[in-house]
Amino acid sequence: MTSLLEPATNPAATTSPGHGDAFTDHLYAMSWTEQDGWHAPDLRPLANLSIHPAMLGLHYGQVIFEGMKAFRQADGSMAVFRPRQNAHRFQRSARRLAMPELAEEDFLLAVDSLVAADQHALSDDPDHSIYLRPLMYGSEANLMLRPSKTYEFLLMAFVAGGFFGDTVRPVSVFVSHEHSRAMPGGTGDVKCAANYGPSFVAQRIAQDAGCQQVVWLDSAERRWVEEMGGMNLFFVRGSGPGAEVVTPRLTGTLLPGVTRDSLLTLVERDGYRVGEERISVEQWREECATGSITEVFACGTAAVVTPVGEVVDEAGDWTIGDGGTGPVTRRLRTALVDVQHGRAPDPGGWMHHIPR
Ligand SMILES: Cc1ncc(COP(=O)(O)O)c(C=O)c1O
Q: Which of 12, 144, 313, 328 has the fewest C-beta atoms lying within 10 Å of its C-beta?
Protein backbone atom coordinates (compact mmCIF):
# COMPACT_ATOMS: atom_id res chain seq x y z
CA MET A 1 0.00 0.00 0.00
CA THR A 2 2.86 2.30 -0.65
CA SER A 3 3.31 4.64 -3.53
CA LEU A 4 5.50 7.51 -4.58
CA LEU A 5 4.08 10.93 -3.96
CA GLU A 6 6.90 13.35 -4.28
CA PRO A 7 10.69 13.19 -4.22
CA ALA A 8 12.12 13.78 -0.78
CA THR A 9 14.39 16.69 -0.21
CA ASN A 10 17.90 15.82 0.80
CA PRO A 11 19.39 18.17 3.35
CA ALA A 12 22.56 16.06 2.82
CA ALA A 13 24.48 17.14 5.62
CA THR A 14 28.04 17.99 4.99
CA THR A 15 29.40 19.66 8.09
CA SER A 16 27.30 18.45 11.03
CA PRO A 17 24.74 15.87 9.98
CA GLY A 18 23.53 15.10 13.53
CA HIS A 19 21.72 11.80 13.85
CA GLY A 20 18.47 11.04 12.09
CA ASP A 21 17.36 13.46 9.43
CA ALA A 22 20.11 13.94 6.85
CA PHE A 23 18.44 11.37 4.62
CA THR A 24 20.12 10.06 1.50
CA ASP A 25 18.40 10.05 -1.87
CA HIS A 26 17.03 6.52 -2.23
CA LEU A 27 14.71 3.98 -0.67
CA TYR A 28 14.89 0.23 -1.27
CA ALA A 29 11.51 -1.51 -1.00
CA MET A 30 10.06 -5.01 -1.23
CA SER A 31 6.61 -6.45 -0.63
CA TRP A 32 5.39 -9.70 0.86
CA THR A 33 2.17 -11.60 0.24
CA GLU A 34 1.18 -15.14 1.23
CA GLN A 35 1.04 -16.08 -2.43
CA ASP A 36 4.29 -14.55 -3.71
CA GLY A 37 6.47 -14.29 -0.60
CA TRP A 38 9.00 -11.44 -0.85
CA HIS A 39 8.83 -9.89 -4.30
CA ALA A 40 9.13 -6.71 -6.35
CA PRO A 41 12.47 -5.37 -5.03
CA ASP A 42 12.75 -1.75 -6.05
CA LEU A 43 15.36 0.99 -5.56
CA ARG A 44 13.64 4.33 -5.99
CA PRO A 45 13.90 7.96 -4.93
CA LEU A 46 13.13 8.45 -1.24
CA ALA A 47 9.60 9.80 -1.01
CA ASN A 48 6.58 9.88 1.24
CA LEU A 49 4.47 6.73 1.50
CA SER A 50 0.76 6.50 0.96
CA ILE A 51 -0.85 4.22 3.54
CA HIS A 52 -4.39 3.19 4.38
CA PRO A 53 -5.50 4.63 7.76
CA ALA A 54 -6.34 1.08 8.87
CA MET A 55 -2.85 -0.25 8.13
CA LEU A 56 -2.42 -3.00 10.69
CA GLY A 57 1.16 -2.17 11.70
CA LEU A 58 0.14 1.36 12.58
CA HIS A 59 -2.55 0.18 15.00
CA TYR A 60 -1.10 -2.95 16.56
CA GLY A 61 2.62 -2.28 16.38
CA GLN A 62 3.56 -5.09 14.01
CA VAL A 63 6.71 -3.18 13.13
CA ILE A 64 10.38 -4.20 13.43
CA PHE A 65 13.56 -2.40 12.46
CA GLU A 66 17.35 -2.56 12.48
CA GLY A 67 20.28 -0.17 12.57
CA MET A 68 23.79 -0.53 11.16
CA LYS A 69 26.42 1.68 9.60
CA ALA A 70 28.41 1.92 6.36
CA PHE A 71 31.88 3.47 6.55
CA ARG A 72 34.23 4.96 4.01
CA GLN A 73 37.37 2.80 3.78
CA ALA A 74 40.93 4.01 3.35
CA ASP A 75 40.81 3.21 -0.39
CA GLY A 76 37.60 5.22 -0.88
CA SER A 77 35.32 2.18 -1.10
CA MET A 78 32.41 1.54 1.30
CA ALA A 79 31.95 -1.27 3.81
CA VAL A 80 29.17 -2.08 6.26
CA PHE A 81 29.89 -3.31 9.79
CA ARG A 82 28.56 -6.85 10.40
CA PRO A 83 25.27 -6.59 8.44
CA ARG A 84 24.78 -10.37 8.60
CA GLN A 85 24.33 -10.00 12.36
CA ASN A 86 21.62 -7.42 11.75
CA ALA A 87 20.01 -9.70 9.16
CA HIS A 88 19.88 -12.49 11.74
CA ARG A 89 18.48 -10.22 14.45
CA PHE A 90 15.88 -8.93 11.96
CA GLN A 91 14.83 -12.55 11.36
CA ARG A 92 14.53 -13.16 15.12
CA SER A 93 12.48 -9.97 15.50
CA ALA A 94 10.21 -11.07 12.62
CA ARG A 95 9.61 -14.49 14.20
CA ARG A 96 8.77 -12.89 17.56
CA LEU A 97 6.16 -10.62 15.96
CA ALA A 98 4.65 -13.36 13.74
CA MET A 99 6.02 -11.66 10.62
CA PRO A 100 7.66 -13.27 7.57
CA GLU A 101 11.45 -13.61 7.72
CA LEU A 102 13.62 -11.97 5.11
CA ALA A 103 16.45 -14.15 3.77
CA GLU A 104 19.94 -12.97 4.73
CA GLU A 105 20.91 -12.70 1.06
CA ASP A 106 17.89 -10.49 0.28
CA PHE A 107 18.76 -8.29 3.25
CA LEU A 108 22.36 -7.95 2.02
CA LEU A 109 21.24 -7.24 -1.53
CA ALA A 110 19.15 -4.35 -0.24
CA VAL A 111 22.14 -3.04 1.73
CA ASP A 112 24.48 -3.34 -1.28
CA SER A 113 22.01 -1.57 -3.59
CA LEU A 114 21.28 1.35 -1.30
CA VAL A 115 24.86 1.97 -0.19
CA ALA A 116 26.13 1.76 -3.77
CA ALA A 117 23.50 4.28 -4.90
CA ASP A 118 23.90 6.76 -2.02
CA GLN A 119 27.55 6.56 -0.97
CA HIS A 120 28.26 9.92 -2.59
CA ALA A 121 26.29 11.55 0.25
CA LEU A 122 29.11 10.70 2.66
CA SER A 123 31.89 13.25 2.99
CA ASP A 124 35.48 12.26 3.79
CA ASP A 125 35.01 13.27 7.42
CA PRO A 126 36.04 10.12 9.35
CA ASP A 127 33.52 10.94 12.09
CA HIS A 128 30.64 10.58 9.66
CA SER A 129 29.02 7.39 8.37
CA ILE A 130 25.88 6.25 6.60
CA TYR A 131 23.36 4.87 9.06
CA LEU A 132 21.15 2.21 7.47
CA ARG A 133 17.62 1.66 8.73
CA PRO A 134 15.79 -1.49 7.59
CA LEU A 135 12.11 -1.49 8.53
CA MET A 136 9.33 -4.05 8.14
CA TYR A 137 5.65 -3.49 8.89
CA GLY A 138 2.30 -5.22 8.56
CA SER A 139 0.74 -3.31 5.69
CA GLU A 140 -2.71 -4.87 5.35
CA ALA A 141 -5.68 -2.53 5.70
CA ASN A 142 -7.58 -4.56 8.28
CA LEU A 143 -8.39 -3.92 11.91
CA MET A 144 -8.91 -7.54 12.96
CA LEU A 145 -6.63 -8.30 15.90
CA ARG A 146 -4.40 -10.79 14.08
CA PRO A 147 -1.15 -10.73 12.09
CA SER A 148 -1.19 -8.84 8.82
CA LYS A 149 -1.44 -10.82 5.60
CA THR A 150 0.81 -8.41 3.69
CA TYR A 151 4.13 -6.75 4.61
CA GLU A 152 6.47 -4.08 3.32
CA PHE A 153 10.23 -4.05 3.78
CA LEU A 154 11.98 -0.70 3.45
CA LEU A 155 15.62 0.26 3.70
CA MET A 156 16.44 3.94 4.09
CA ALA A 157 19.60 5.75 5.17
CA PHE A 158 20.89 8.98 6.62
CA VAL A 159 24.29 10.52 6.99
CA ALA A 160 25.25 10.29 10.66
CA GLY A 161 27.62 12.31 12.79
CA GLY A 162 28.07 11.61 16.50
CA PHE A 163 24.96 10.48 18.40
CA PHE A 164 26.02 12.65 21.35
CA GLY A 165 27.51 15.41 19.21
CA ASP A 166 30.75 15.37 17.28
CA THR A 167 33.12 14.98 20.23
CA VAL A 168 33.35 12.06 22.65
CA ARG A 169 32.42 13.30 26.10
CA PRO A 170 31.24 11.31 29.11
CA VAL A 171 27.47 11.22 29.50
CA SER A 172 25.46 11.36 32.70
CA VAL A 173 22.80 8.73 33.29
CA PHE A 174 19.63 8.47 35.35
CA VAL A 175 18.64 5.13 36.86
CA SER A 176 14.92 4.57 36.27
CA HIS A 177 13.21 2.81 39.16
CA GLU A 178 9.74 3.78 37.94
CA HIS A 179 9.69 2.54 34.35
CA SER A 180 10.82 -0.74 32.80
CA ARG A 181 11.94 -1.35 29.22
CA ALA A 182 11.35 -5.08 29.06
CA MET A 183 9.97 -8.01 31.01
CA PRO A 184 10.58 -11.76 30.98
CA GLY A 185 8.65 -13.30 28.10
CA GLY A 186 8.32 -9.90 26.41
CA THR A 187 10.15 -8.43 23.45
CA GLY A 188 13.24 -6.87 25.07
CA ASP A 189 15.64 -9.13 23.16
CA VAL A 190 14.33 -8.17 19.72
CA LYS A 191 14.13 -4.87 17.89
CA CYS A 192 10.47 -3.96 17.52
CA ALA A 193 9.07 -0.45 17.38
CA ALA A 194 6.89 -1.14 20.41
CA ASN A 195 9.98 -1.31 22.66
CA TYR A 196 10.89 2.31 21.98
CA GLY A 197 7.79 4.54 22.24
CA PRO A 198 7.22 3.58 25.89
CA SER A 199 10.84 4.43 26.73
CA PHE A 200 10.51 8.09 25.81
CA VAL A 201 8.83 9.12 29.06
CA ALA A 202 11.73 7.73 31.13
CA GLN A 203 14.18 9.43 28.79
CA ARG A 204 12.33 12.69 29.36
CA ILE A 205 12.47 12.23 33.15
CA ALA A 206 16.22 11.56 32.84
CA GLN A 207 16.64 14.78 30.88
CA ASP A 208 14.60 16.72 33.41
CA ALA A 209 17.03 15.41 36.04
CA GLY A 210 19.89 16.85 33.99
CA CYS A 211 21.03 13.54 32.47
CA GLN A 212 21.50 12.52 28.86
CA GLN A 213 20.36 8.91 29.15
CA VAL A 214 18.25 6.51 31.16
CA VAL A 215 19.57 3.26 32.67
CA TRP A 216 17.10 0.38 32.65
CA LEU A 217 16.85 -2.08 35.54
CA ASP A 218 15.24 -5.52 35.39
CA SER A 219 11.47 -5.34 35.82
CA ALA A 220 11.11 -8.14 38.41
CA GLU A 221 13.46 -7.04 41.21
CA ARG A 222 14.30 -3.57 39.90
CA ARG A 223 17.92 -3.86 40.91
CA TRP A 224 19.84 -5.57 38.09
CA VAL A 225 21.35 -3.22 35.54
CA GLU A 226 20.26 -4.13 32.02
CA GLU A 227 20.92 -1.43 29.41
CA MET A 228 21.18 2.29 28.84
CA GLY A 229 18.64 3.91 26.48
CA GLY A 230 19.32 2.15 23.17
CA MET A 231 22.79 0.93 24.13
CA ASN A 232 24.47 -1.88 26.03
CA LEU A 233 26.66 -1.17 29.07
CA PHE A 234 30.18 -2.32 30.03
CA PHE A 235 31.96 -1.98 33.39
CA VAL A 236 35.74 -1.90 33.81
CA ARG A 237 37.39 -3.12 37.02
CA GLY A 238 40.98 -2.22 37.75
CA SER A 239 43.35 -0.71 35.24
CA GLY A 240 46.22 -1.51 32.90
CA PRO A 241 46.70 -4.89 31.24
CA GLY A 242 45.11 -6.72 34.20
CA ALA A 243 41.81 -4.85 33.92
CA GLU A 244 38.58 -6.81 33.78
CA VAL A 245 35.79 -5.75 31.43
CA VAL A 246 32.29 -7.08 32.10
CA THR A 247 28.83 -6.56 30.65
CA PRO A 248 25.38 -7.62 31.88
CA ARG A 249 24.53 -11.16 30.85
CA LEU A 250 21.85 -11.62 28.18
CA THR A 251 18.83 -12.63 30.21
CA GLY A 252 16.21 -12.40 27.47
CA THR A 253 15.27 -8.85 28.45
CA LEU A 254 18.33 -7.14 26.92
CA LEU A 255 18.93 -6.49 23.26
CA PRO A 256 21.96 -8.55 22.13
CA GLY A 257 23.85 -5.65 20.53
CA VAL A 258 26.13 -6.24 17.57
CA THR A 259 28.55 -3.72 19.10
CA ARG A 260 28.39 -5.54 22.46
CA ASP A 261 29.27 -8.81 20.78
CA SER A 262 32.11 -7.18 18.83
CA LEU A 263 33.54 -5.52 21.94
CA LEU A 264 33.54 -8.82 23.84
CA THR A 265 35.83 -10.11 21.08
CA LEU A 266 38.03 -6.99 21.05
CA VAL A 267 38.32 -6.99 24.86
CA GLU A 268 39.58 -10.56 24.78
CA ARG A 269 41.87 -9.85 21.84
CA ASP A 270 43.40 -6.93 23.76
CA GLY A 271 44.26 -9.30 26.61
CA TYR A 272 41.81 -7.99 29.21
CA ARG A 273 39.84 -10.39 31.37
CA VAL A 274 36.28 -10.47 30.06
CA GLY A 275 33.02 -11.54 31.61
CA GLU A 276 29.24 -11.48 31.43
CA GLU A 277 27.56 -11.15 34.82
CA ARG A 278 24.60 -9.65 36.65
CA ILE A 279 25.45 -6.30 38.24
CA SER A 280 23.07 -4.64 40.67
CA VAL A 281 22.74 -0.90 40.96
CA GLU A 282 23.91 -1.08 44.64
CA GLN A 283 27.00 -3.00 43.55
CA TRP A 284 27.68 -0.44 40.83
CA ARG A 285 27.56 2.37 43.42
CA GLU A 286 29.66 0.50 46.01
CA GLU A 287 32.29 -0.65 43.54
CA CYS A 288 32.69 2.92 42.30
CA ALA A 289 33.02 4.12 45.91
CA THR A 290 35.74 1.56 46.68
CA GLY A 291 37.49 2.24 43.36
CA SER A 292 36.93 -1.30 42.09
CA ILE A 293 34.90 -0.10 39.08
CA THR A 294 37.11 2.43 37.31
CA GLU A 295 35.26 3.02 34.04
CA VAL A 296 31.80 2.45 32.55
CA PHE A 297 30.88 2.86 28.92
CA ALA A 298 27.86 2.37 26.71
CA CYS A 299 28.01 0.94 23.22
CA GLY A 300 25.81 0.62 20.17
CA THR A 301 25.71 1.32 16.47
CA ALA A 302 24.67 4.92 17.07
CA ALA A 303 26.73 5.64 20.21
CA VAL A 304 29.81 3.59 19.14
CA VAL A 305 31.60 3.55 22.53
CA THR A 306 30.53 6.37 24.86
CA PRO A 307 31.93 6.86 28.36
CA VAL A 308 29.56 7.23 31.31
CA GLY A 309 30.76 9.83 33.83
CA GLU A 310 27.99 10.41 36.37
CA VAL A 311 25.07 8.38 37.71
CA VAL A 312 21.93 9.91 39.20
CA ASP A 313 19.96 7.49 41.34
CA GLU A 314 17.19 7.82 43.93
CA ALA A 315 19.62 6.58 46.62
CA GLY A 316 22.22 9.23 45.74
CA ASP A 317 24.45 10.27 42.86
CA TRP A 318 27.98 9.16 42.15
CA THR A 319 30.88 9.70 39.78
CA ILE A 320 32.67 6.95 37.90
CA GLY A 321 36.45 7.22 38.23
CA ASP A 322 37.31 10.89 37.80
CA GLY A 323 34.23 11.45 35.63
CA GLY A 324 36.32 11.56 32.45
CA THR A 325 37.01 9.11 29.62
CA GLY A 326 39.08 6.20 30.93
CA PRO A 327 41.98 4.57 29.09
CA VAL A 328 40.25 1.21 28.51
CA THR A 329 37.18 2.96 27.08
CA ARG A 330 39.36 5.09 24.83
CA ARG A 331 41.38 2.11 23.65
CA LEU A 332 38.36 -0.05 22.85
CA ARG A 333 36.64 2.79 21.02
CA THR A 334 39.73 3.32 18.86
CA ALA A 335 40.07 -0.43 18.22
CA LEU A 336 36.46 -0.66 17.04
CA VAL A 337 36.51 2.48 14.91
CA ASP A 338 39.79 1.42 13.28
CA VAL A 339 38.25 -1.88 12.14
CA GLN A 340 35.15 -0.06 10.89
CA HIS A 341 37.23 2.33 8.78
CA GLY A 342 39.54 -0.38 7.46
CA ARG A 343 42.54 1.03 9.38
CA ALA A 344 43.07 -2.17 11.40
CA PRO A 345 43.10 -5.85 10.44
CA ASP A 346 39.69 -7.51 10.31
CA PRO A 347 40.37 -11.11 11.35
CA GLY A 348 36.70 -11.79 12.05
CA GLY A 349 35.66 -10.74 8.53
CA TRP A 350 33.32 -8.17 10.11
CA MET A 351 33.40 -5.67 7.27
CA HIS A 352 31.00 -6.35 4.41
CA HIS A 353 32.50 -4.66 1.38
CA ILE A 354 30.08 -3.06 -1.06
CA PRO A 355 30.71 -4.27 -4.60
CA ARG A 356 31.89 -1.35 -6.75
C1 LIG B 1 17.76 -1.31 23.32
C2 LIG B 1 19.04 -1.37 22.59
N3 LIG B 1 20.12 -1.90 23.22
C4 LIG B 1 21.31 -2.00 22.61
C5 LIG B 1 21.49 -1.54 21.32
C6 LIG B 1 22.83 -1.66 20.66
O7 LIG B 1 22.77 -2.62 19.64
P8 LIG B 1 23.75 -2.53 18.38
O9 LIG B 1 25.12 -2.60 18.93
O10 LIG B 1 23.39 -3.74 17.58
O11 LIG B 1 23.47 -1.26 17.70
C12 LIG B 1 20.41 -0.97 20.63
C13 LIG B 1 20.55 -0.49 19.26
O14 LIG B 1 20.25 -1.20 18.34
C15 LIG B 1 19.16 -0.89 21.29
O16 LIG B 1 18.10 -0.36 20.67
A: 144
